[in-house]
Amino acid sequence: MKKAQIVIGLGFGDEGKGITTDFLASQHPEAVVIRFSGGQQAAHTVMIDERKHVHSSFASGALRGLPSYFTEHCTIHPDFLFNEMEELKAKNGNIELHIHPLAKVTTPFDVWQNRTSVKNLEHGTCGKGVGATMKRHESPYKLFAADLIAPREMLMEKLKGIAYYYGFVEENEIRELLNPFLNAIDGVDWKINDYNYLTSFDHLIFEGSQGILLDMDHGVFPNVTYAHTTSKNAYEICKLLKIEDIEMYYVTRSYATRHGNGWMSNEKEIALKNNEEETCTFNEYQKELRFGEIDYNLLNYALKLDAAYVFPAKNNLVVTCLDQIDENFKVENLDVKFDEVYGSCSPYSKDFKFLKK
Question: What's the whole-model pTM score?
Answer without folding.
Answer: 0.94
